[in-house]
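Figure 6 in text form: structure in, sequence out.
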């Protein structure tokens, strides 16, 4: 039942945020805004409680694909909440929440205990920081695609009432680089904790995961440096971000699929 409740809260909050950006609902904008923040906050609390209870089992972590996806859904909701503090970003918050609602509906009902293995607190910290940073960068990839669509609409000079849902491109890019900065810090922390806490890294066949993660870290570092020193933006920044995200996907999902195929341990 909680899955349906979270889905509805996210979806209704998304519709309310979108409504605050549409001219036809100008008179109801303040009421819609209050309702959207309230529903989103309740949804995030319920989602967090459900996810914590599902992941932390018997002194270990249940790292099923459903739980991993659900964590990304929660991060979508959190980024949507932060972005909605800026009025022009409430349209993109609505889009992020629709995705978060769908992820919550599909994944929160999963009760499997796959991957539930006892771990030391150091390994748990490493795994959670890795998943959180991956989820954050995934949200950034969605924002990057949003910025790409937005730029193409501007070049095509498409004018419609839907344009009010789009923030100025510069504002969307600031959100993207904010996520990139936080994701870079989280990814650096997860790599360092892995090198410090994971024993016999090469014996566990995790070397390629580490290499791809370091390559992705280098791409995101170059992106942030280019933004800070050279003012990078537009298609170059979006493509570079998505390139780093692809490397990270190879590190996480590529490694997991290979290890599961070979019946090897994965952390």
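Output sequence:
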């Amino acid at each position: 039942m909680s899955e349906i409740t979270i889905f509805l809260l996210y979806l209704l909050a998304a519709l309310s945020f979108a409504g605050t950006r549409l001219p036809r609902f100008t008179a109801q904008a303040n009421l819609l805004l209050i309702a959207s923040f309230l529903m989103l906050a309740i949804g995030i609390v319920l989602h967090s409680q459900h996810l914590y209870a599902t992941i932390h089992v018997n002194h270990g972590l249940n790292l099923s694909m459903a739980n991993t996806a659900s964590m990304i859904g929660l991060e979508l909701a959190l980024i949507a909440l932060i972005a909605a503090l800026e009025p022009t970003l409430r349209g993109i918050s609505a889009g992020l929440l629709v995705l978060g609602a769908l992820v919550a509906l599909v994944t929160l009902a999963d009760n499997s205990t796959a991957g539930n293995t006892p771990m030391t607190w150091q390994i748990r910290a490493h795994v959670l920081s890795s998943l959180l940073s991956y989820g954050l960068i995934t949200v950034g990839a969605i924002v990057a695609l949003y910025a790409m669509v937005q730029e193409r609409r501007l070049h095509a000079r498409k004018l419609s009432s839907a344009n009010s849902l789009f923030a100025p491109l510069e504002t969307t890019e600031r959100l993207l680089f904010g996520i990139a900065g936080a994701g870079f810090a989280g990814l650096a922390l997860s790599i360092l904790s892995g090198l410090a806490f994971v024993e016999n890294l090469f014996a566990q066949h995790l070397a390629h995961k580490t290499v791809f993660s370091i390559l992705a870290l280098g791409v995101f570092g170059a992106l942030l440096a280019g933004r800070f020193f050279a003012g990078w933006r537009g298609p170059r920044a979006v493509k570079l971000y998505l390139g780093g995200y692809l490397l990270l996907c190879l590190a996480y999902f590529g490694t997991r699929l290979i290890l599961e195929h070979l019946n090897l341990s994965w952390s």
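Caption detail: Residues 259-267 have pLDDT under 50 and may be disordered.
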